[in-house]
Amino acid sequence: MKSAGDGYMIVFRESSAAVECAVALQRAHDTYDFGLDVGAIRVRMGSHVGEVIREGDDFFGRTVILAARVAAHASGGEILISDALLRSVTDAAEAGT
Questions:
Q1: Which of 12, 7, 16 is nearest to 59 (CA)?
Q2: pLDDT at 30 over 70
Q3: Within 10 A of 74 (CB to CB), how many other CB atoms are there?
Q4: Residue 40 contacts by C-beta under 8 Å, 6 or more apart in sequence?
Q5: Taking a C-beta distance cutoff of 8 angstroms, is the pair 39, 10 a contact?
Q6: Distant-in-sequence, close-in-space partners of 56: CB < 8 Å, separation ≥ 6
Q7: How far apart are CA 18 and CA 40, in angstroms?
Q8: Residue 3 pLDDT exceeds 80
């Protein structure tokens, strides 16, 4: 959706899509050869779920702030998700959606 320095904010309609994307991106980074001069790049990711404020192509609000805070706690190569996102994904899986 937008970049901030060397980071990105990506918005998803479905909670499970956020988790699937994070896993796919981590796997891609783990297998990509960035060359000897760069070495391994370990990215950190964090996700949260909730309502956002949308203005044009930008998103704001508590949910965005919490997602950034979750990501800030991750270490390189790690994906952290909030309890709310875990519940959302678990509930959707149990409902079969």
A1: 12
A2: yes
A3: 17
A4: 34
A5: no
A6: none
A7: 24
A8: no
Q: 42 falls in which pLDDT band (50, 70, 90)?
A: confident
pLDDT score of 1: 64
Mean pLDDT of 38-42: 84
Report pTM: 0.81
Name every residue whose Cβ is closer than 8 Å to that of residue 69 and which is 6 or more positions away in sequence. Answer: 46
Q: Are 26 and 76 in contact (CB under 8 A)?
A: no
Written as one string, the DSSP assignment of 3-70 is: EETTEEE---SSHHHHHHHHHHHHHHHHH----TTT------EEE--S--EEETTEEESHHHHHHHHH
Amino acid 73 reads H
